[in-house]
């Protein structure tokens, strides 16, 4: 079963690292935080790299 990624918007600092790295998966909201626009826009390995790189540690896999 494929994993699905989400952003805890209350923890996001708006650094845009995820959007810069995987714009096909993430986008910025009008509130200046990231959100998932296409959870299947990249491989799980690429998404995991972004999760591991997020300075706010606000990107996670759904259980």
Word description of this protein:
This protein is an alpha+beta fold. It is built from 2 helices and 4 strands.
User: Fraction of residues in helices?
Assistant: 10-25%
Tell me which oligomeric state these chains represent.
single chain
Second CATH tier, the architecture: 2-Layer Sandwich
Spatial strand order of the main sheet: 1-4
Order of helices and strands: EHEEHE
Q: Show unreliable segments.
A: none
- Measured by DSSP, the beta-strand proportion falls in 15-25%
The rounded distance between the terminal residues' Cα atoms is 11 Å
SS-derived structural category: alpha+beta
From the alpha carbons, calculate the radius of gyration and give it in angstroms: 10 Å
What is the CATH T-level topology?
A: Alpha-Beta Plaits
Write down the CATH class. Answer: Alpha Beta
Q: Which word captures the global form?
A: globular
| Overall tally of domains | 1
Beta strands, count: 4
Please give the count of helices. 2
Largest sheet: 2 strands, antiparallel
What is the arithmetic mean of pLDDT?
A: 97
Task: Give the structure's gist in a few sentences.
Helices cover 24% and strands 19% of the residues. With 63 residues, the chain is α+β, with helices and mostly antiparallel strands.
Give the secondary structure arrangement, pairings included.
Blueprint: E1 5-7, H1 17-21, E2 26-28, E3 34-36, H2 44-53, E4 59-61
Antiparallel strand pairs: 1-4, 2-3
């Amino acid at each position: 079963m494929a994993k699905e990624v989400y952003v805890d918007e209350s923890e996001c600092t708006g650094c845009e690292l995820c959007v810069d790295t995987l714009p096909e998966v993430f986008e910025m909201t009008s509130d200046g935080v990231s959100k998932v626009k296409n959870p299947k826009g990249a491989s799980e390995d690429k998404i995991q790299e972004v999760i591991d790189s997020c300075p706010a540690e606000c990107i996670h896999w759904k259980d």
